[in-house]
Amino acid sequence: MRSLLGGWTPAVVSLFVAIELLACPRIAASQAKDTVSTGPAPVARQASLATSPKTLATSAGEVALDRRASDRLQSAQHVLFDGRYADAMSAFTAVLESGDARGNYSLTSWAQHGMAIAAAFDGQLARARTLYEELLRGPALFPLADSIEAAVLTKRHSTASALLDRFSDSHPSVLGQQYAHSFRALDLLFAGSCDAALAEVTRVPDADRPLPQAIRGVCAAKAGRHTEAVALRDSVLTHPLADPNSWPMIVARGVALKIR
How many angstroms separate the CA atoms of 221 and 198, rounded? Predict the structure, then answer.
């Protein structure tokens, strides 16, 4: 099923759905400052269509490339959403190698972010770290949250803890604490401590959001409570607001898909 928000990059979509999915302000891809929510073409390219007849053909070609790249990225995003991580990495890589997204940061960062998450959940941590480092060198709307996601998913626990402390101190709101406690719990889970992860989940303002549910499900599976684990997994995977363009949902699904 194609998303109603399918014409927008994950960064834009995540601004709208992150609160509903994880009740947090931002766990999404870096987005270029020139990106607009009406489609994949950046403002600079849109503006060129109206400013100079001499550049009309060139600009139209660039917009066509943007749209072709966006369509291919949408397809890769669905593969990522389904948890087919090796296939997703190949699909995102193909877009970058094609040159269709060249010069458009919002599209190249979309591919880089998708590849980083896919590599992390595929167990290729060294590759995921390299991809996140490349992504984080560019402009970002929420660099601290993006850095936390990178540290947690690539299991750099000391870095993640320090970043989460900074985030928690600077975001005392309910939404900020939902994010901080959810990702701290995930970091503790990845560090191998279900007891600590579940204790952290009890501090989450809403433990029935997808990421806390996924964490509880993984720990239930580890404890041999298969029926409970499957119920929590299925709750995440059938979440009514699930959207392939949402990075928060993809992270929660990646955790839930660990439950067999």
Answer: 13
**Domain at 10-256, CATH from 1.10.1740, 1.25.40, 1.10.3470, 1.25.10:** 1.25.40
CA distance linking residue 35 with residue 31, whole number of Å: 7
- The tens digit of pLDDT for each residue in 177-230 reads 999 999 999 999 999 999 999 999 999 999 999 999 999 999 999 999 999 999
Check: pTM over 0.85? Answer yes or no: no
| Among candidate residues 147, 51, 175, the one with its CA nearest the CA of residue 43 | 51
- Determine phi and psi for 250, rounding to 5 degrees: -65, -40
Map tokens 């996601």 to a residue: 149
Closest by Cα among 235, 233, 237, 239 to 260: 233
Coil/strand/helix, residue 227: helix
Rounded Cα gap, residues 63 and 167, in angstroms: 37
Kindly state the DSSP code that residue 104 receives in the 8-state scheme. Answer: -
Helix (H) or strand (E) holding 135: helix 125-136
